[in-house]
Structures are given as structure tokens and as C-alpha cells.
Design a protein that fits this description.
This protein has 344 residues and is of the alpha+beta class. It is 37% helix and 15% strand. It has 13 helices and 9 strands. Strands 1, 2, 3, 4, 5, 6, 7, 8 and 9 form a 9-stranded mixed sheet that branches. Helix 8 packs across helix 9. The longest helix has 14 residues.
Length: 344
């Protein structure tokens, strides 16, 4: 049972399957308590599958990632949380830094998930991926000499770029990857160059950037693939907007396009630790990978599985194989660089 009532916030959902197919683990309560920042209908099917195959009930609470991390910290040793599910390596790193995650050693997870998509000490595991790509105003044609993230800093694109603020975790993670590949000095030069090319002050979310480029308000932007896929698979107006932008997967001849993860980690002191690990292992099964990735138009994390959602319409690309743990480790440096560059 939960160690205390989550005062009107805890939503009960029936839950998802383990690869072993056995019953509830001895010593656990026949349930697993998931704190999740995901809110997709396909996740409900995951929980149902897991419950049908194992008899383990899923208790779920949803909120923003930072709020969930703070909640687990404030609950301390009395937290009922077994598993934290969130998006972006940066937020997984924040959970790691908060000291709320416990290492997991699982042959299933080690076999199914590429090493660069999981924490080296087993604190968290990437379960789906998304790419951060460059988009352009299709009515003006594909810009010449724009093949890499570095090219965005070229003065020939002065006044062309719309982008989110530097506080956005996706931009922080992108710059963190540049720090990992090129070093702090080169990353700062890049940030300064992009700032000089702004068409307007940073504002809005990725959706705002897509709409601005489609409307001709700016020529270029940087967005996550799942936002583009939503437009590609949306209603008539959204599809028409998608047709007005072109997509560039950067760095195909060098490091590959920057990717990030949605992932999860077992909470330290989890009252149902064994069940939490079983749920993690279930999430690497082929069927669960489809549900998990398709729910947000992402790419499966398990090697060899192809995307089956609208995101595949964006085309094939070579992904950066940088260890995503480094994206978290460079977060502070990235924020400091953004501040010095004047990327507000």
C-alpha cells in the first residue's frame, strides 16, 4: 500500500507488463508507484498491459518533471515513489543531482538499451529518443551552406533565426552536447554567433518556432522532431503549415544529429523496488517500445526498432552517439555560456 495518501493527486491506472510474465514479486506489495511527467493516452495501454501480464497494479501521479523531483526530495524517506519517468537527459541529470535515484543492475536493460542511452551506473535509462533539427522557410528554399549546427552561427544568416529562450531544457541540452564535442570555447563562439543572427528576442515554445517559420516571420529555427510530427499528422490546417517548412538533420557528415531521451529511474528507497525494475524491463519490450515512443512521436530506444508514428515521415538520419549522460554533466556550463552570450 502507499505509505501515505497523495491528497487527491494520485490517479490510479491499470498497468503494464514485464518480460518474465510472472506474478507480483515477493516482498513487494503487488503494485508500483510511478511519478510521471508524461501524459499520453498510449501510456495508459502500457499500464494495462503490465497489469494484465503480472497482476501488479500501477498507481500513477502526473506533474511537471521539476515539480516531481522536488516532491520526491520533500517526501524524503517517506516517499511512496518507486519510479520517476520524465523527458530529457537534463531533467534525469537533475534527479541524479538531487540524490533521489538508485542504481539498477539489470541484464535485460543492459542487453536491450544502447550504452549511450543509459546512465553508466544504472541510475536512469533512456526509453525513447527525439532529434533536435533545423527547420527553414520552404518558400525560400533550402539555405545554401546550412548543414550543421555550427553553420547557424554564420553571419550570412544574420536576422534569420527564431528560437526558444536559453532557459529551455532542450536548448541547454543541445549546447551541452556541443560542449562535449567541441569544448567550452567553441560552444561559446557558437552561442554568440547564433545570438547575432536572431530575427527576434527568444520567445515561445517549439510550436511557436514552427509557426513563425511557416508564416515567414523568420527563415530558420531549431525544434524537436516530435513537434514537427504533430503537425505532419494533424488536421488540415496543421498539415498545411507543416508543408511550409523544410527539415535539415544537421551534422550528418560528422557527429550526427543531436538526440535526447525520455527515460526513467528507480527512486532511492522505493517501497516496491523489484516491481519498478520489472516495469522498466517491460518498457524495453518491442510492444511497449511502440506504445512509449508512438505516444509522443518519438523514436524507439531499442536498437533495430524503427519508428512507426508520423515522425518517420521526416526521413532517415544518423543520430549522434554521444553518451547522453554527458549532456547532463555539461548543463551548468551550457547555462553559463548562454548567459555570457546574451541568449536570454
Amino acid at each position: 500500500m502507499l505509505r501515505f495518501l497523495l491528497a487527491g493527486a494520485l490517479a490510479l491506472s491499470l498497468a503494464a507488463c514485464s518480460q518474465s510474465g510472472e506474478g507480483p514479486s515477493p516482498g513487494d506489495n503487488g503494485e508500483v508507484n510511478i511519478y510521471s511527467s508524461r501524459h499520453y493516452d498510449t501510456d495508459l495501454r502500457l499500464y494495462e498491459d503490465f497489469s494484465e501480464q503480472t497482476g501488479i497494479k500501477v498507481n500513477r501521479i502526473e506533474a511537471g518533471a521539476d515539480a516531481l523531483i522536488e516532491k520526491i526530495v520533500s517526501e524524503g524517506e517517506f516517499s511512496p515513489a518507486d519510479l520517476l519517468v520524465t523527458v530529457d537527459a537534463g531533467r534525469l541529470w537533475r534527479a541524479e543531482e538531487a540524490g533521489i535515484l538508485d542504481p539498477v543492475d539489470s541484464e535485460v536493460l543492459a542487453k536491450r538499451l544502447p550504452a549511450n542511452l543509459r546512465h553508466p551506473d544504472g541510475l536512469w535509462f533512456g526509453l525513447s529518443t527525439r532529434a533536435r533539427v533545423i527547420i527553414y522557410d520552404a518558400s525560400q528554399g533550402r539555405p545554401e551552406g546550412l548543414e550543421t549546427y555550427a553553420d547557424l552561427a554564420d553571419p550570412k544568416f544574420r536576422g534569420d533565426i527564431c528560437v526558444r529562450s536559453s532557459s529551455n531544457i532542450y536548448n541547454i541540452s543541445l549546447l551541452s552536447s556541443i560542449v562535449a564535442h567541441k569544448g567550452e570555447g567553441a560552444a561559446e563562439q557558437w552561442a554568440q554567433g547564433v545570438v547575432a543572427n536572431f530575427a527576434r528576442a527568444p520567445q515561445g515554445n517549439d510550436t511557436s518556432q514552427i509557426e513563425a517559420v511557416a508564416a515567414g516571420e523568420c527563415r530558420l529555427s531549431i525544434v524537436n522532431t516530435y513537434y514537427l510530427a504533430r503537425y505532419a499528422g494533424g488536421d488540415e490546417a496543421e498539415r498545411a503549415m507543416f508543408d511550409k517548412v523544410g527539415v535539415i538533420f544537421p551534422n550528418q557528415d560528422s557527429t550526427g544529429t543531436h538526440v535526447n531521451v525520455s527515460g526513467a529511474g528507480v527512486v532511492k528507497g522505493a517501497p516496491n523496488r523489484a516491481n519498478a525494475i520489472r516495469f522498466l524491463e517491460y518498457l524495453t519490450s518491442d510492444s511497449a517500445q511502440r506504445y512509449f515512443a508512438d505516444g509522443n512521436n518519438e523514436y524507439p530506444a531499442v536498437a533495430g526498432l524503427e519508428a512507426t508514428s508520423t515522425v518517420e515521415r521526416l526521413g532517415e538520419f544518423r543520430a549522434d552517439e554521444l553518451d547522453v549522460a554527458q549532456i547532463g554533466e555539461n548543463q551548468r556550463t551550457a547555462v553559463e555560456i548562454f548567459d555570457r552570450a546574451g541568449w536570454n
